[in-house]
Amino acid sequence: MTQGAVKTTGKRSRVVSAKKKAILSAALDTFSQFGFHGTRLEQIAELAGVSKTNLLYYFPSKEALYIAVLRQILDIWLAPLKAFR
């Protein structure tokens, strides 16, 4: 029984990760095209293939999603600098 729970948890973790990745990718595209004020969460949710409610489960506000996108971009930009440490 424990092994089944582990398999379910692992599968759920992959699903959560995939949804977050899809949402972040859609958010990056949409924010890039329309800016913060021109973007609606409904647009991002539709592009990511999730409901707005589901999007808000992972990111509680448009601001939180925007910050997550900015952090992702900064991580990519700063990765080469970490090699110099």
UniProtKB/TrEMBL annotation:
Task: Look up the DNA-binding region in the UniProt entry and give its residue ranges.
Answer: 40-59
Q: Which UniProt keywords apply?
A: DNA-binding
Q: Which Gene3D superfamilies match?
A: Homeodomain-like
Per its UniProt record, what SUPFAM superfamilies does this chain match?
A: Homeodomain-like
Q: Does the keyword DNA-binding apply?
A: yes
| GO molecular function per UniProt | DNA-binding transcription factor activity; transcription cis-regulatory region binding
Point out the signal peptide segment. Answer: none
Q: Which organism is it from?
A: Escherichia coli
HTH tetR-type domain mapped to chain residues: 17-77
- This protein's name: TetR family transcriptional regulator
Q: What superkingdom heads the lineage?
A: Bacteria
One Pfam family linked to the record: TetR_N
Asked if the keyword DNA-binding belongs to this entry, the reply reads: yes
